[in-house]
Amino acid sequence: xxxxxxxxxxxxxxxxxxxxxxxxxxxxxxxxxxxxxxxxxxxxxxxxxxxxxxxxxxxxxxxxxxxxxxxxxxxxxxxxxxxxxxxxxxxxxxxxxxxxxxxxxxxxxxxxxxxxxxxxxxxxxxxxxxxxxxxxxxxxxxxxxxxxxxxxxxxxxxxxxxxxxxxxxxxxxxxxxxxx
Length: 180
Ligand code: S3P
Fold this sequence. Notes:
With about 180 residues, the protein is α/β, with parallel strands linked by helices. Helix content is about 50%, strand content about 15%. The protein has eight helices and seven strands. It has helices at about 20-30, 35-45, 50-55, 60-70, 90-100, 110-115, 130-150, 160-175, and strands at about 1-5, 10, 35, 80, 100-105, 150-155, 175-180. The strands form two sheets. A five-stranded parallel beta sheet has the order 3-4-2-5-6, sandwiched between helices. A two-stranded antiparallel ribbon has the order 1-7. Helix 3 packs across helix 4. It is globular. The termini are close together. The chain binds shikimate-3-phosphate. Shikimate-3-phosphate (S3P) binds next to loops. Shikimate-3-phosphate binds next to loops.
C-alpha cells in the first residue's frame, strides 16, 4: 500500500485517542517512519513534557511544540503524531492543513477515561475531574481538529489492529492510498 499525493500523514486528536499506538502500526503498514512531537521535544530537552510544563509553563511548551512541528512537517514519508493541543495555534493548523494528510482520531470520552485511569504523566490531567475536563476539551478543540482534518476516524475500544484495518479501508475508499 502506498500513500498518494501527500508525503506525510499527521495524526491529530485529544489525549488518549491512540495517536502513538495507531501511528506506529499505520507507519509500519505504509512503509513510513513514525515520529511523535512530544517524544521529539523530550529527546531534545532531555526532560519529560510534565517537567517542561512545571519548569517553563504551558506557553513555553507550546513554543517548543510549534518549533518541532515546523521542522518535522517538512520531513517526507512520515507518520507524525502530534500532541493533543497542537491545533490550538493558528500557525500550527496552517502547517498541518497544508503539508500533509491529516487524520483526526476522535475517541469517545469513556475510552479516554479508561486509557488514562493510571496516568501520572500528562500534566493537564493531574488534579482535575477528568470526565468534565475531557468534555470541556472536546467542546473547545473538536472544531479545531475538524478544521484541519482530511479524514476523521471514530476511535473506541477496538484493538489497534482492527482500528488500522478500518483506517486503511477508509483511506483506500477515499483514494488517499493505493494498493501497490
Ligand atoms: C496535551 C497533550 C499531550 C501533551 C501535553 C499537552 C494537550 O499530548 O502534548 O501534555 O494539550 O492536550 P498527547 O495528546 O499525546 O497526550
